[in-house]
């Protein structure tokens, strides 16, 4: 895996996509209204940022967002930071994930992207075995996350997963309620039709 070659391919792909969208009079990733090659020009900075401390890269993309009046989770910012973290931790799936979790950025979006890239490169066998066991059961994931973080990090990490589990439970209950109501309506209609 050659970082410069892969980065070149990614930027070329972004540039071609921008050109296509410009011909169709539409924005590419909703960011290119700033100028026509906004995404590819911004990603081009990764050539120099990948050899600098990660903090410089984070500062650069935060400044891009501020200067161009973009949200912190704008596609160009998320793509740039995900690629940067991936390139900085190219040798290890585990460190890719851990290091992305420790940064003061949009970890709920960036960490899965970094994980997807690292996973594609290294394959499923490089995911630590104890991590696979940790996520095998959803209900007890709160206790299992204790092994991932240091003592001072545990409360924050724990709260994040509590919220995620509460949300997914709520979504499941809503789905069940919707199905029950639908069945009630169908049953009521079939009684009316039969009568």
Classification by helices and strands = mainly alpha
Q: Low-confidence segments, ≥5 residues, pLDDT <50?
A: none
The tally of beta strands, per DSSP, is: 0
Strand/helix succession = HHHHHHHHHH
The number of distinct helices, counting runs of at least 4 residues, comes to 10
User: What gyration radius follows from the Cα positions, in whole Å?
Assistant: 22 Å
> What is the 3D form?
extended
| Major β-sheet profile | none
Strand content: under 5%
Q: What distance lies between the first and last C-alpha atoms, to the nearest angstrom?
A: 71 Å
Mean pLDDT score: 77
Instruction: Estimate percent helicity.
Output: 55-70%
Explain how this protein is built:
- The protein is an all-alpha fold and 195 residues long.
- The chain is 69% helix and 0% strand.
- The chain has ten helices and no strands.
- Helix 4 packs antiparallel against helix 5.
- It starts with a helix and ends with a helix.
- 19% of the residues are buried.
- The model has no long low-confidence stretch (mean pLDDT 77).
């Amino acid at each position: 895996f050659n970082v410069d070659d892969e980065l070149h391919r990614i930027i070329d792909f972004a540039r071609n996509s921008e050109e296509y969208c410009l011909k169709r009079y539409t924005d590419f990733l909703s960011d290119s209204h700033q100028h026509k090659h906004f995404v590819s020009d911004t990603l081009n900075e990764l050539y120099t940022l990948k050899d600098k401390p990660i903090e410089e890269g984070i500062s650069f993309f935060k400044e891009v967002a501020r200067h161009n009046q973009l949200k912190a989770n704008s596609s160009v910012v998320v793509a740039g930071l995900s690629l940067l973290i991936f390139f900085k931790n190219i040798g290890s799936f585990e460190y890719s994930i851990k290091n992305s979790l420790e940064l003061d950025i949009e970890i709920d979006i960036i960490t899965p992207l970094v994980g997807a890239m690292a996973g594609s490169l290294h394959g499923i066998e490089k995911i630590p075995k104890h991590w696979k066991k940790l996520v095998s059961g959803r209900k007890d994931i709160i206790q299992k996350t204790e092994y991932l973080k240091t003592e001072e990090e545990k409360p924050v990490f724990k709260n994040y997963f509590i919220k995620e589990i509460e949300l997914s439970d709520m979504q499941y209950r809503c789905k069940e309620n919707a199905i029950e109501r639908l069945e009630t309506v169908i049953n009521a209609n079939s009684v009316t039709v039969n009568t």
